[in-house]
């Protein structure tokens, strides 16, 4: 075999860096996972990753047609129950109906009224709002997806404090100590 060509260089002074390059991960110090409080198909999704949101800001709108139809039906049942109760309220003092019959219609009215209130709450839950100010960490859904009650749809970073998790190989362990300066940069940039 032929000998390899070697280039000679003169010895000179040059700056030496004792830096350790490693990959790190930024994690949210306070992360809150948000889940749907009602089921439905996503109609609007006015947020995306990195958006800064305020407490009460709209994050997601679920289809409300089914809930609105059920609510209208429940309101009609409530009105009917109320009229029946009021009718018997009038008939009891005249001896045309018993107090027990009146009380049964009153109970039906109260039950129907509570069903309306519960369905109105479901309707309110179809407009999902941010419970706190923060930054949208990720969005796990898209318009048209169907969410079930309890399904997570996004995470919010509660504050701007991030935690840098730096994995340092054990071969550098002797060179690391508390108080050394750390410089973080984005891969492929000078930032």
Can you lay out the helices and strands and say which pair or pack?
Blueprint: E1 24-28, E2 31-35, E3 40-44, E4 52-53, E5 58-62, H1 65-91, H2 99-125, E6 127-129, E7 134-139, E8 146-147, E9 152-157, E10 162-166
Antiparallel strand pairs: 1-10, 2-9, 3-5, 3-8, 4-7, 5-6, 7-9
Helix pairs in contact: 1-2
What oligomerization state is this entry in?
single chain
**How many strand elements?**
10
Estimated radius of gyration: 33 Å
Count the DSSP helices: 2
> Cα distance, first to last residue?
48 Å
Helix/strand class? alpha+beta
Looking at the structure, what is the overall shape?
A: rod-shaped
Give the DSSP E fraction (strand runs of 2 or more residues): 15-25%
The proportion of residues forming helix, as a percent range, comes to 25-40%
Order of helices and strands: EEEEEHHEEEEE
The averaged pLDDT comes out at: 90
Question: If strands are numbered along the chain, what order do they take across the biggest sheet?
Answer: 2-9-7-4
* Main sheet makeup: 4 strands, antiparallel
